[in-house]
Design brief:
It is a single chain. The protein is of the alpha+beta class. The protein folds into two domains: about 60 residues, no CATH class; about 100 residues, Double Stranded RNA Binding Domain, CATH 3.30.160. It contains ten helices and ten strands. Strands 5-6-10 form a three-stranded mixed sheet. A three-stranded antiparallel sheet has the order 7-8-9. Strands 1-2 form a two-stranded antiparallel ribbon. Strand 8 and strand 9 form a beta hairpin. The chain is globular. The two termini are about 45 Å apart.
Length: about 220
């Protein structure tokens, strides 16, 4: 709503409708995405999303991968400066590909030789097989740390899955990493930046030209 200076009455601001289908909301402009992200923050549902800017980054990253809006916010997280997904979401993206024939995950060995194996079958290509063992985790300094200590098999599985899926479907995943893997990387030092005000396209103030046109062309 905005106030007109003439008679002090309120005038309704017309906004373009946000389209939707059976898969949820569909965005065709930045304004619609921003309104959705603002609603997400105001809802308080996602405790790790406290600004529309954070919601917008996660929304856009998910949409580029083919996820619907809510599942973009649920499965995307910026970890150590990189948009990433949970391992289950990565597997879902690969299995949804029409040229994915199968993803087979198994374990072999015991103790330090316990190894997670992931085999990805892409139609028309040789299977991609990647492994990650307890010995590999120890060499990388991961064994015994945080979730690796509590869920060792799961963490081995996520590493093997990430490597195999990313190597087999590099064109679809575009270097996408899994959150479980990126959390193990030491974060880079934060760079202090001055936060700029977000200006929507319809809020840009056009200033009148006061100089002669000839001067602007020099």
């Amino acid at each position: 709503m905005t106030e007109t200076p003439k008679d002090k009455t309120l005038t309704k601001i017309d906004r373009a409708p946000v389209l939707a289908d059976e898969r949820g909301l569909k965005f065709d402009n930045l304004d619609a995405m921003w309104r959705f992200c603002t609603a997400v923050v105001n809802s308080g549902t996602f405790k790790d999303i406290n600004t529309p800017e954070i919601a917008l980054i996660r929304l856009q990253a998910g949409l580029e991968l083919g996820l619907t809006p809510i599942w973009s916010l649920t499965n995307i997280m910026v970890t150590n400066g990189r948009p990433s997904v949970w391992g289950d979401a990565l597997l879902g993206l690969v299995l949804a590909r029409p040229d994915c024939d199968d993803v087979i995950e198994t374990f072999e060995g015991e103790g330090d030789q316990l190894t997670a194996i992931c085999e990805v079958h892409r139609r028309g290509r040789q299977p991609i097989i990647r492994k990650f063992s307890v010995s590999d985790a120890k060499r990388a300094g991961l064994h015994g740390r945080n979730v690796h200590n509590a869920y060792p098999q799961r963490m081995l599985q996520m590493r093997a899955r990430s490597w195999a899926c990313r190597d087999a479907f590099a064109d679809a995943l575009r270097g996408l990493s899994v959150i479980e893997e990126l959390r193990d990387i030491e974060p880079r030092a934060a760079v202090e930046r001055e936060k700029s005000k977000v200006v929507m396209p319809d809020e840009v103030e056009l200033k009148p030209i006061t100089e002669p046109v000839e001067a602007l062309l020099v």
